Amino acid sequence: MRNFSIAILHRLGNPLLSTLQGLGEFVAFCKETVRWFFTSVFRVRITIREMERVGVQSIWIIGLVGAFSGMVFALQTGFAFKLFNAESLVGATVGIAVTRELAPVFTGLMVVSRACSAMAAEIGTMQVTEQVDALKALGVPPISYLVIPRVVATTIMMPFLCGIFIAVSLAGSFMVAVHLLQIPESAYMKHFDYIVDATDIYQGLIKAFVFGILISLISCFKGYRAKNGAEGVGKATTQAVVASSVAILVSNYFIASWLLEIFPNK
Questions:
Q1: Contact between residue 143 and residue 33 where contact means Cβ atoms under 8 Å apart
Q2: pLDDT tens for residues 17-72?
Q3: One domain for residues 60 and 151
Q4: d(CA 231, CA 161)
Q5: Residue 99: exposed, middle, or buried by beta-carbon count in 10 A (0-12, 13-18, 19+)?
Q6: On the CB side of 116, how many CA atoms lie within 13 Å of its CA?
Q7: Which helix (H) or strand (E) holds 174?
Q8: % of the chain beyond a pLDDT of 90
Q9: Count of the separate structural domains present in the chain
Q10: 152 and 212 in a common domain
Q11: Cα gap 44→26, rounded to integer Å
Q12: Are residues 78 and 158 in the same domain?
């Protein structure tokens, strides 16, 4: 019985200790990144290249996901509100949901899938092939050269991508509501203008900004800690995508609670 209890504690304790150790290493990594951000040379050319990779190359997928997200949300809310003769509220409902929640969260998830996974794989490959050690031997700080440009680029581009998502999603919802569900355009726009204002957009953009910091740091950290060859790179990339996605969904609640205190409901 004693051996069985020890085995249970051992099985439960190892994952917990591993998680705590990983969190500690991530905090130290973030601290090191902040230190190098303020003390090292800012690499403009690399940052612009990463902005193009993270932002410009993600526009098409953000537009596609945004359009169909707005369309399907308008379709479902339209049929639901029709039961209560409240179809005119579709515009306001979609507007609030998209600007505050759907746009920043979906944008973050798409950027994680398309760009941040590539960050983790690229840095991880450099780590296991000893290119990171070569940078150190040449006197180039790896965090300054590899991490900071990617974090800055993702943080800058996320609000722009979120804004594109909002615009395309609202346009798609308008087309479905007015032309498919036959909701009067005047009623749609009247409630939309009354309920949705700039503060709702600000909340989405602030969330996107914070998500950009989180997902880029997590992805770079996972890649930077990769080991054991190609298998380790694949594992690091998978962990980066999963951890970044979970970070978006979990932090979204706490950021939303904080923003509701700053921007109280109308």
A1: yes
A2: 777 777 888 999 999 999 988 888 888 999 999 999 999 999 999 999 999 999 99
A3: yes
A4: 32
A5: buried
A6: 35
A7: helix 148-175
A8: 65
A9: 2
A10: yes
A11: 25
A12: yes
- In the block, which residue shows the tokens 């709702």? 200
| Closest listed residue to residue 248, CA positions, set 216, 215, 202 | 215
Same domain for 99 and 129, yes or no, is yes
Q: Same structural domain for residues 35 and 146?
A: no
Q: Are residues 82 and 22 in the same domain?
A: no
Q: Rounded to 5, what percent of the chain is helix, strand, coil? A: 90, 0, 10
* Domain assignment of residue 23, given as a range: 1-39
Q: Does residue 172 share a domain with residue 258?
A: yes
CA-to-CA distance for 255 and 203, rounded, in angstroms? Answer: 9
Count of C-beta atoms within a 10 Å radius of residue 256: 14
- Phi, psi values for residue 51, rounded to 5°: -65, -40
The model's pTM is: 0.91
Cα–Cα distance for residue pair 76/80, rounded to 1 Å: 6
Mean pLDDT, residues 255-265: 85
Number of other residues whose CB lies within 10 A of the CB of residue 197:
13
Of 209, 249, 263, nearest to 101 (Cα)? Answer: 249
Q: Is residue 68 within a helix (H) or strand (E), and if so which, with residue range?
A: helix 59-82
211 and 103 together in one domain: yes
Whole-angstrom Cα distance, residue 249 to residue 149? 25
Length of the chain: 266
Please state, in angstroms and as integers, the Cα–Cα distance from residue 109 to each residue in 53, 104, 162, 213, 221, following that order: 16, 9, 11, 13, 18
Q: In 3D, which of 131, 133, 124 has the Cα closest to residue 236?
A: 124
